[in-house]
Inverse folding.
């Protein structure tokens, strides 16, 4: 059946089972492969997107339930002020190693910065602990979030 | 300065390939190149008409930084600005590109000279072309920023303008090429970000899983949960009738994990649909004898074997029995560690298109040529009918040195000529169809004389083997320290049978052997009334070279001493007695992948589990850190990964021949709150640069358990560490 999704400000129609996870609708039906499949069980955070501004695991979100909600993915995250600062900091500090988890990391970090402009280490731990990085880029993830926060304070 | 770690033959072969591009032995058409088309100078370098330089990155990028590092070497010697450079991943063809395996931290030592020479050869031809045009001697000309200039006349000409003339120059003899003096490096030694970082941050398709072809079908492949089980029957028709299912195919395996097990492939235009359909698939497997293997069984057998005589010697030197009989003091302990999965965050996948008797493959592989051989065998195809394209890789860690997913994708695609097929593992399949870091058990004994000197060392290693040989990644080298440093040593081994496929996990062998040997030597040091750095420095003795076989550089005791002394100074080791009660520091040294690493770690128990505060890392990987930022990142990642192996609860267990763990809840990784402060310093020595992908990992595990002993008095001899150990 046709499901209407609002992705990155555009309304897109997907012909699929309403139970299909948003992750796979994005990757297969909408050809947006920036959102990554890692575990399929909400354990790794690689598929993190924003739904109505909140970080959500796209592998655990059936498209039937995401209808009408505002979905933001890595492909458009840099359009927001927080997302731009996070993305810039990620490049500046060269956060990625293999890079596979980083879309999810950036989405979680952006959601944190949007609500907490000057996050403490504890805030960062709480917001980011659902996102695994197999290469263990955590030192730079922490540093990049702080860098992005400083960039916001200056602006 | 020592000779580079390349045999002459290997170097010549690599330089022939590198130089071959310049010599046009590869028949690259240049004279007929269309107007505005790139002028191909070597297999690695193209110079565009606007003086941009395309440099081919020939090794797979798994997060180790090779895609940035290798072009840095070329750009440096070609003498162009990094801003001029665009990097393109090459495809896999060792006949053109030479070695393309990304593993063993070997890329840096293998490529340091040949890849720079490729750049230097291109530069020499450009200079020769300019010299010819201007009628001056090449030696009088200078290069820089992609231009040749003549200081005498003030003339200058861009590389682009010279490309066609340069292509007509005779290729220089690689042996006569002069490489830059390191003092003149402008790119090597600079911190340069990953070439794909902006694309990663923007969510661009880069990885194997992202690759798509028109009309592509997604495949899931079901195999027997117990490794080696064979297909009997399945409800294939029922699954075929499910919505969205395009094909259901049986795959006949050859029974080897490296290639193909029997399986059932389900194909759909959606991977999610194919995987949903898999839940309805009911297969009857013939388990044969493989269902008899279990973790419990291995542990019981290992305990039994440690009590008895070993199957054979790894190395026996001196009179071990006499030394123990004469000892003033002996120390003994048993250590063990579990199987581990790789858990690359990008699950195994591969895309394949079989058409007209040839196959094209898009694979996240660390080891393409091995895959080519396996596919050729499985499909009965000539190797030149197989084209392998690299994708960026969402984590390697040694998992993708194996090419099982490539053979499987190829076998499925071969049944559907003309249809592109992407095989993708679910996370459960990825965790349950790995090539695991093998478990192991060690029974150690050490003899001390009355002065506290280590006089004999004995390790009975119970590992997995077949036909009297260890299985992949289950071996212990005869040079395992303290072997080679004392006169009386016995390293011996016994083999257990298993159906578990085993393989290389980052710092293979070393990630386990460092733990057991450096932790036991910490026990020995304490029994001798000294600390481990002191014992290690005594064992290392005077600076000297200890041979490590024909294909490896010698172990240089002076380099080991250098990093030990460095980390002792960095970490305030001498003042560790002043730490508050409940905090402790531990030390370990390990040499692996040509890298010398000594680490100190500070830890305390928080809520009953170890919390690592700081890790100090001193490393010696030679004379030059090529990309300092990436070297630091590799060291940080190695340290946290090692801590994860010890602390996160990683342990693969087997029941009835099958792996129990299915996801990151039962085989966890470190998470961000577990990140300690990591301080890394390099000791530069006059040896050729070596790799950073692995050698910082092994010492962190023994440093941790040694620190935990200092902090709590508890000696950890089993991994993973669990709260009950401190109860």
């Amino acid at each position: 059946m046709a499901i209407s999704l609002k992705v990155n400000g555009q309304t897109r129609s997907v012909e699929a089972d309403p139970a299909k996870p948003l992750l796979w609708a994005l990757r297969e039906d909408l050809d947006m492969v920036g959102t990554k499949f890692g575990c399929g069980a909400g354990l790794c955070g690689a598929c993190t997107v924003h739904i109505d501004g909140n970080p959500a695991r796209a592998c655990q979100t059936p498209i039937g339930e995401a209808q009408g909600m505002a979905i933001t993915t890595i492909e458009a995250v840099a359009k927001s002020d927080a997302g731009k600062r996070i993305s810039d900091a990620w490049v500046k500090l060269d956060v990625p190693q293999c890079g596979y988890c980083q879309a999810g990391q950036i989405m979680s970090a952006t959601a944190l910065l949007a609500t907490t402009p000057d996050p403490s280490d504890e805030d960062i731990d709480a917001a980011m602990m659902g996102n695994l990085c197999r290469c263990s880029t955590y030192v730079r993830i922490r540093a990049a979030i702080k860098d992005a926060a400083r960039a916001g304070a200056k602006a | 300065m020592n000779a580079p770690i390349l045999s002459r033959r290997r170097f010549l072969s690599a330089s022939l390939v590198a130089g071959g591009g310049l010599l046009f032995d590869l028949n690259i058409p240049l004279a007929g190149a269309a107007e505005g088309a790139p002028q191909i100078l070597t297999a690695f370098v193209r110079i565009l008409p606007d003086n941009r330089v395309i440099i081919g990155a020939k090794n797979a990028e798994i997060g180790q930084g090779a895609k940035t590092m290798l072009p840095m070497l070329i750009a440096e010697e070609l003498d162009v600005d990094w801003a001029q450079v665009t990097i393109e991943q090459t495809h896999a063809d060792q006949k053109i590109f030479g070695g393309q395996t990304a593993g063993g931290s070997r890329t840096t030592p293998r490529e340091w000279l040949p890849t720079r020479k490729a750049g230097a050869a291109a530069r020499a031809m450009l200079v020769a072309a300019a010299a010819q045009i201007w009628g001056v001697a090449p030696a009088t000309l200078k290069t820089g920023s992609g231009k040749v200039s003549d200081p005498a006349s003030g003339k200058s000409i861009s590389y682009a303008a010279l490309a066609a003339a340069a292509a007509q120059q005779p290729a220089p003899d690689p042996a006569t090429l002069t490489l830059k003096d390191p003092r003149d490096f402008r790119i090597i030694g600079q911190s340069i970000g990953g070439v794909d970082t902006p694309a990663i941050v923007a969510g661009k398709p880069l990885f194997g899983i992202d690759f798509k072809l028109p009309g592509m079908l997604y495949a899931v492949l079901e195999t027997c949960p117990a490794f080696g089980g064979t297909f009997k029957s399945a409800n294939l028709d029922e699954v075929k009738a499910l919505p969205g299912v395009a094909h259901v195919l049986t795959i006949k395996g050859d029974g080897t994990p490296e290639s193909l097990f029997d399986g059932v492939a389900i194909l759909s235009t959606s991977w999610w649909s194919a995987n949903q359909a898999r839940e309805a698939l009911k297969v009857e497997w013939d388990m044969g004898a493989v269902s008899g293997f279990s973790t419990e069984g291995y542990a019981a057998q290992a305990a039994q074997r440690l009590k008895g005589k070993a199957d054979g010697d790894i190395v026996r030197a001196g009179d071990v029995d006499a030394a123990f009989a004469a000892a003033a003091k002996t120390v003994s302990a048993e250590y063990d560690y579990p199987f581990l999965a790789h858990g690359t965050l990008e699950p195994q996948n591969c895309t394949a298109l079989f058409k007209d008797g040839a196959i094209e493959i898009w694979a996240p592989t660390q080891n393409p040529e091995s895959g080519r051989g396996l596919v050729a065998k499985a499909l009965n195809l000539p190797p030149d009918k197989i084209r392998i394209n690299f994708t960026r890789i969402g984590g390697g860690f040694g998992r993708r040195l194996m090419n099982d997913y490539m053979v499987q994708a190829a076998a499925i695609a071969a049944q559907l000529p003309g249809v592109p097929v992407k095989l993708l593992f679910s996370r459960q399949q990825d965790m349950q169809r790995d090539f695991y870091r093998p478990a192991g058990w060690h029974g150690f004994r050490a003899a001390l004389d009355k002065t506290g000197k280590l006089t004999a060392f004995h390790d009975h290693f119970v590992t997995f083997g077949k036909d009297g040989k260890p299985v992949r990644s289950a071996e212990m080298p005869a040079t395992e320290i303290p072997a080679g440093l004392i006169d009386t040593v016995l390293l011996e081994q016994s083999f257990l049978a298993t159906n578990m496929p085993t393989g290389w996990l980052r710092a293979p062998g070393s990630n386990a052997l460092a733990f057991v040997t450096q932790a036991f030597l910490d026990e020995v040091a304490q029994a001798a009334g000294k600390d481990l750095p002191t014992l290690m420095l005594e064992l290392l003795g005077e600076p000297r070279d200890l041979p490590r076989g024909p294909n490896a550089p010698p172990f240089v005791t002076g380099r080991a001493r250098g990093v030990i002394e460095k980390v002792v100074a960095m970490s305030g080791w001498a003042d560790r007695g002043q730490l508050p009660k409940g905090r402790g520091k531990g030390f370990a040294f390990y040499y692996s992948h040509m890298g010398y690493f000594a680490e100190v770690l500070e830890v305390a128990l928080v809520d009953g589990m170890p919390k690592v505060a700081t890790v100090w890392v001193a490393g010696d990987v030679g004379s030059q850190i090529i990309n300092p930022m990436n070297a630091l990142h590799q060291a940080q990642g190695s340290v946290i990964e090692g801590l994860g192996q010890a602390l996160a609860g990683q342990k693969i267990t087997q029941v009835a021949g099958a792996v129990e763990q299915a996801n990151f809840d039962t085989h966890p990784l470190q998470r961000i709150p577990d990140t300690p402060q990591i301080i890394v310093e390099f000791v530069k020595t006059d040896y050729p640069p070596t790799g950073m992908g692995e050698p910082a990992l092994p010492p962190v595990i023994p440093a941790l358990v040694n620190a935990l002993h200092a902090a709590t008095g508890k000696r950890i001899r089993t991994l993973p560490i669990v709260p009950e150990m401190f109860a």
User: Anything to note?
Assistant: Chain B touches chain A through 62 residues (CB under 8 Å).
